[in-house]
Amino acid sequence: SLSNSLAAADIAHSLHPYTNARAHERNGPVIITRGDGVHVYDSEGREYIEGLAGLWSVAVGFSEKRLAEAAARQMAELPYYHTFAGKAHEPQIRLAEKLVEMTPEALTRVFFTNSGSEANDTVVKLVWFLNNALGRPEKKKFLSRIKGYHGITIASGSLTGLPVNHKGFDLPAIPVVHLTCPHHWRFGAEGESEADFCARLLREAEETILAEGPETIAAFIGEPVMGAGGVIVPPEGYWAGIEALCRKYDILLVSDEVINGFGRTGARWGCEKFGFTPDILVTSKQLTSSYMPLAAVLMTDAVYQAIADHTEKLGTLGHGFTGTGHPVATAVGLENLKIIEERDLMGNAARLEAPFQEGLRALGGNPLVGEVRGIGLIAAIEMVADRATKRGFEPAGKVGARAAAFAAEEGLICRALGDTLALCPPLIVTEADVARILERMGRALERTADWARA
Ligand code: PLP
């Protein structure tokens, strides 16, 4: 059959990201053939609800004709042009304008990249460029967090605080200090309240800044709600405290909203949800619903002015990708943002937060479930070997992989992050879709508990 020959060709020729290559040679791929709304279908004809919206990204679902048409129109009109040396084109201009309109008022300028990783590399380089411009070349270090995810290139992968992205790759390769992950349930000390935990983390951050020397710390980067690290919602007061430290020690605050942006947390931006104002904001994923690769770095006027001054001195900004502001990607992004606004998909996420989050918490009676957490339309279920001590499984990840496989059999795609199952459905989900996600997840957890017992 076609799917058998495709599978054989995949096994013969591809090296897959985030995949155990030897296991893949044995098991072969799951070939996804088409999408329809919140559903995708595989080559065996099986239907799944895409409970992770692809990779936390397909806001408008998998069959939005307006995006296909926007891409085709732009392909026919001007399929490619670059934005180097002062060249511009309408979709890139309009999307930059739209992003400035849709983000906190302080952010006034946009630089486009092809991916979130490149956007965060761009952040590192712009921050270094800026501090060189300001005559303080020693101010170069980044503060990040353990379990933070910022991408996988040399610089962004260094900012990422997950061992899987460092091991074997000689990362971190840039000066970065990873602070404690703000996850009270997992990292709170015995009997420590959430408020005390938060205060301890803020003390740690300040002590780290002082020990390293504030004159060496350029920026703090964080996801308002961590995504790939396991969907971690920080304690109340955490972001206000981090923002205050950044202001006190003249450290730029970077909000990585690659997952959080466009309503995911129930607010438009994660920084708005948690009430802080970044100097730099990074967005991608839901920006185009991932129909085209695109990311953007937004910055304040102060950041822009310092960079602009330096380009005058050096003659140019020696940074940019062939695809920076790609016309097809930006045209698709613009149409996608129109759809998000016209259909009030950000409002939909806020309205469905309660049934989604409460429904998931109601699955907490399952004996494997240690914690159910999340906000807006993003959530995770962390499974543990022992609920009383929160001890995880040995080896880590086996139960998570089994549970994700059961969920797929039940018709739900979720993501196993170790033994934590993440959900982040398309923003177009309905209340009935949410109910189906909950049913399927519930059955997958029951089957996993039976399997673990056996
Ligand atoms: N930042 C965050 C918060 C992300 O979740 C991701 C991807 O998942 C990235 C950056 C990297 O984006 P990309 O995979 O497009 O390089």
Label the CATH architecture of the largest domain: 3-Layer(aba) Sandwich
Radius of gyration: 22 Å
**Average predicted local confidence, pLDDT:** 98
The geometry reads as globular
What order do the strands of the largest sheet run in, or round the barrel if closed? Answer: 4-10-9-8-7-5-6
CATH class designation of the largest domain: Alpha Beta
* Residues in helix, %: 40-55%
CATH-defined fold name of the largest domain = Aspartate Aminotransferase, domain 2
Extended strand count: 15
Please give the count of helices: 17
Spatial separation of the terminal alpha carbons: 36 Å
Any idea how many domains?
Answer: 2
State which percent range the strand residues make up.
15-25%
Structural class: alpha/beta
Annotated CATH homologous superfamily of the largest domain: Type I PLP-dependent aspartate aminotransferase-like (Major domain)
- Catalogue the unreliable spans: none
Task: List the ions, cofactors and other small molecules found in this model.
Answer: pyridoxal-5'-phosphate
Largest sheet: 7 strands, mixed
GO molecular function: adenosylmethionine-8-amino-7-oxononanoate transaminase activity; pyridoxal phosphate binding
InterPro entries: Aminotrans_3, Aminotrans_3_PPA_site, PyrdxlP-dep_Trfase, PyrdxlP-dep_Trfase_major, PyrdxlP-dep_Trfase_small
Protein name: 4-aminobutyrate--pyruvate transaminase
Keywords: Aminotransferase, Pyridoxal phosphate, Pyruvate, Transferase
